[in-house]
């Protein structure tokens, strides 16, 4: 891997025209109550993590701006969402499932038309490779379709009646109210929609706030939200969290908080709600997923999976492998192949073919990464890959640190970036104790060949984390699998079908089984008088 210097960034004329960011997007509207309201106040300028070079000067590419709304607009959004929900009496909340599905399908149709625009903004705003930006868009479309299919299944299962102990009942799922959706910068589209779409389709109304980075990419979809859903069902707020989210939470009128980000922010938001027992939270938080490499593991597979696991999107995934425990017997061999693999990763601009390491979007991120590296070096680790940790502005070569010990910050803290700490171990108790003592409990990976050894690890470890991966990196997908975590890593479970449950509650209609009640129920069903109490079967 070469040392990074300014010419890793392109001159403007070197950017292929098909990938050029285009005209700056000066967003001056926000969606509230079914209309795109004009914003004339302060705006936040958006710069790409990608720089361009002119002579020996580097300059971040200006992408546009978005509204810095105030408490006032945030209250408008809340008002609109509450109105549309109408205490559970609004048209959206009582609409038959089949009709709600039609609205979501209409949205998907409109969304598809914006693929190119959204993908381009995604790539420029957060520095995600073109291929991964396309994948994020397409995966989101598949997620929406899977959600529709899962809801049809759920609805079909609930269209039956039960008679127990002389009581007739029909049990279905009903919405919860107003949902506040806040996604993370690393999957600004996908992880916002994996809460927003299930929340909507279950009959809730939504206020969504894009993450700090990855805002403009939502703008091309505002018209689609406006046109596909009844007024007030989807509303947006932009700006400083304290200013626009604080008033929403303190109002006590948010029924569900769907937030993917840090536990620190999640705690602040939850505490702001005056009646915490009324707030349902769905949280995706930090993680420090470890890999354990046993002495007999298939080294080549472990290297491939650990590189993917630690460095996809520069390690900026909550599921990334963030610490590798490698048995002493294989550690030197592993390091040799691992470093070779890393040196083959292409560092460059997100649109370049086969590029893997790209500019980091967060302010001062490379400084924070450098601090982790310096702390580890001071305490006895070495940077063991060629030009590892080398930085030029927002770009950073992956840094492999070895041997990492418990007194280093990188041993405990989530780096969320391109640093790979390697800890040698002799006794399996060391990684096991690490996992038990860790604040986090999302996933882990075990690499080994002996079924007996792996089985002995699985049983205690499934009680520490929520997914044990065998000879595979940690990951969220497939999206139909449950995605959750223990301890400080998550609250609630998200998978296509779990999300439908999370954003709804079971509600039922029950009646003593006597002639009068049977007749009433039969009439309601025959004459199709209720959307809830119904035997309609969605095909
Ligand atoms: O940032 C956390 C994401 O949910 C990870 O998803 O494993 O599909 O990259 P992924």
Characterise this structure.
- By secondary structure, the chain is an alpha/beta fold.
- Helix content is 37%, strand content 23%.
- The chain is built from 18 helices and 27 strands.
- The strands form 8 sheets. It has a 7-stranded mixed β-sheet with strand order 17-20-21-14-13-23-24, with helices on both faces. The protein has a 6-stranded mixed β-sheet with strand order 10-9-8-11-12-26, sandwiched between helices. It has a 3-stranded mixed β-sheet with strand order 1-5-4, covered by helices on one side.
- Strand 8, helix 6 and strand 9 form a beta-alpha-beta unit.
- Helix 4 (115-126) packs across helix 5 (130-157), helix 6 (190-201) crosses helix 17 and helix 11 packs across helix 12.
- The longest helix has 28 residues, at 130-157.
- The termini are far apart.
- The mean pLDDT is 97.
- Bound molecules: glyceraldehyde-3-phosphate (G3H).
Would you spell out the secondary-structure blueprint of this structure?
Elements: E1 25-26, E2 29-32, E3 35-38, E4 43-54, E5 57-67, H1 71-85, H2 91-94, H3 97-112, H4 115-126, H5 130-157, E6 162-164, E7 167-175, E8 178-182, H6 190-201, E9 205-209, H7 222-228, E10 234-236, H8 241-244, H9 246-250, E11 256-260, H10 263-272, E12 280-284, E13 289-293, H11 299-311, E14 321-327, H12 328-343, E15 346-347, E16 355-357, H13 365-378, E17 382-383, E18 391-392, E19 395-396, E20 399-402, H14 409-412, E21 419-425, H15 429-437, E22 440-441, E23 443-447, H16 451-461, E24 467-470, E25 486-487, E26 490-491, H17 496-502, E27 504-512, H18 515-526
Parallel strand pairs: 1-5, 8-9, 8-11, 9-10, 11-12, 13-14, 13-23, 14-21, 15-16, 20-21, 23-24
Antiparallel strand pairs: 2-3, 4-5, 6-7, 7-27, 12-26, 17-20, 18-19, 22-25
Helix pairs in contact: 3-5, 3-7, 4-5, 5-6, 6-17, 11-12
Bound molecules: glyceraldehyde-3-phosphate.
């Amino acid at each position: 891997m070469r040392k990074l210097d300014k010419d890793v960034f392109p001159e403007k004329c070197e950017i292929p025209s098909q990938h050029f960011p285009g005209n700056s997007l000066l967003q001056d509207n926000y969606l509230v109550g079914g209309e795109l309201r004009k914003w004339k106040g302060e705006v936040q300028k958006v710069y790409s993590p990608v720089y361009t070079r002119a002579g020996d000067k580097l300059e971040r590419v200006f992408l546009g701006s978005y509204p810095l709304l105030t408490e006032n607009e945030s209250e408008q959004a809340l008002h609109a969402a509450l109105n549309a929900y109408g205490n559970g009496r609004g048209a959206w909340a009582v609409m038959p499932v089949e009709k709600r599905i039609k609205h979501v399908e209409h949205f998907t149709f409109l969304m598809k038309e914006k693929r190119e625009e959204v993908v381009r903004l995604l790539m420029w705003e957060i520095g995600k490779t073109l291929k991964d930006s396309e994948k994020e868009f397409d995966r989101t479309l598949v997620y929406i379709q899977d959600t529709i299919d899962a809801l049809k299944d759920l609805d079909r299962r609930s269209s039956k009646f039960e008679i127990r102990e002389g009581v007739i009942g029909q049990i279905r799922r009903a919405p919860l109210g107003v949902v506040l959706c806040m996604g993370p910068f690393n999957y600004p589209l996908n992880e916002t929609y994996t809460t927003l779409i299930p929340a909507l389709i279950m009959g809730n109304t939504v206020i969504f706030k894009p993450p700090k980075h990855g805002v403009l990419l939502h703008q091309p979809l505002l018209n689609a939200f406006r046109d596909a859903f009844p007024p007030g069902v989807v509303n947006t707020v932009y700006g400083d969290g304290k200013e626009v989210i604080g008033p929403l939470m303190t109002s006590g009128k948010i029924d569900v908080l769907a937030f993917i980000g840090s536990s620190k922010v999640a705690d602040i938001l939850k505490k702001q709600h005056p009646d915490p027992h009324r707030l349902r939270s769905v949280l995706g938080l930090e993680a420090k997923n470890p890999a354990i490499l046993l002495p007999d593991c298939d080294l080549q597979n472990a290297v491939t999976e650990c590189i993917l696991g630690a460095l996809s999107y520069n390690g900026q995934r909550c599921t990334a492998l963030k610490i590798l425990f490698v048995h002493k017997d294989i550690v030197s061999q592993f390091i040799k192949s691992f470093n070779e693999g890393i040196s083959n990763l292409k560092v460059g601009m997100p649109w370049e073919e086969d590029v893997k390491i790209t500019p980091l979007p967060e302010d001062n991120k490379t400084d924070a990464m450098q601090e982790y590296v310096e702390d580890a070096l001071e305490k006895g680790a070495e940077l063991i890959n060629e030009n590892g940790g080398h930085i030029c502005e927002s770009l950073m070569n992956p840094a492999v640190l070895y041997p990492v010990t418990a007194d280093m910050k990188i041993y405990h803290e989530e780096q969320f970036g391109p640093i790979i700490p390697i800890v040698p171990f002799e006794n399996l108790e060391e990684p096991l104790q690490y996992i038990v003592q860790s604040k986090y409990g999302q996933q882990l990976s075990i690499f080994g060949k002996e079924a007996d050894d792996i089985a002995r690890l699985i049983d205690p470890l499934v009680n520490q984390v929520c997914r044990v991966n065998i000879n595979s990196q940690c990951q969220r997908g497939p999206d139909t699998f449950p995605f959750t975590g223990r301890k400080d890593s998550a609250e609630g479970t998200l998978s296509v079908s779990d999300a439908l449950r999370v954003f709804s509650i079971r509600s039922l209609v029950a009646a003593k089984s006597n002639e009068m009640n049977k007749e009433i129920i039969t009439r309601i069903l025959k004459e199709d008088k209720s959307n809830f109490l119904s035997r309609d079967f969605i095909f």
